[in-house]
Amino acid sequence: xxxxxxxxxxxxxxxxxxxxxxxxxxxxxxxxxxxxxxxxxxxxxxxxxxxxxxxxxxxxxxxxxxxxxxxxxxxxxxxxxxxxxxxxxxxxxxxxxxxxxxxxxxxxxxxxxxxxxxxxxxxxxxxxxxxxxxxxxxxxxxxxxxxxxxxxxxxxxxxxxxx
Length: 163
Prior knowledge:
The chain has helices at 10-20, 73-84, 116-141, 147-161, and strands at 25-27, 33-39, 44-52, 57-63, 91-94, 101-108. By secondary structure, it is an alpha+beta fold. The chain has a single domain (10-161), classed as Yope Regulator, Chain: A (2-Layer Sandwich), CATH 3.30.1460. The protein has a six-stranded antiparallel β-sheet. The longest helix is centred in the last third of the chain and has 26 residues, at 116-141. The N and C termini lie far apart (47 Å).
């Protein structure tokens, strides 16, 4: 294992983040994967923190937990593409076979180190985006809105929050 700051592996730093921020989490089968549930303002989902020490990467995923029905996958893919355009950090992904939707943030640190502050920033950026855009997916699947209308509704909420 490579060390990142104070002789710690990436996994050590990620575990420290989860402990310091008092998340309820579990490491999966002693692998470099951590699972944690999260309750946002607009939904509940599962988060996975994955460490790839060999490539010096940290990835954080929020998994929506709603497999998009086949008939809505094209519309949801369009909504997610519209959301992704312009996001400064992270992106939504959808498995077109299963309908699984997730938000991903990641960092690669080949020459540098990773800190708890960096892990914290990636994790909370991730969950803020998932929480904010989650209702748009539901609006497309259950509310009958077009992808464009669903995003317009979400963006209107941004304006209301930040005049």
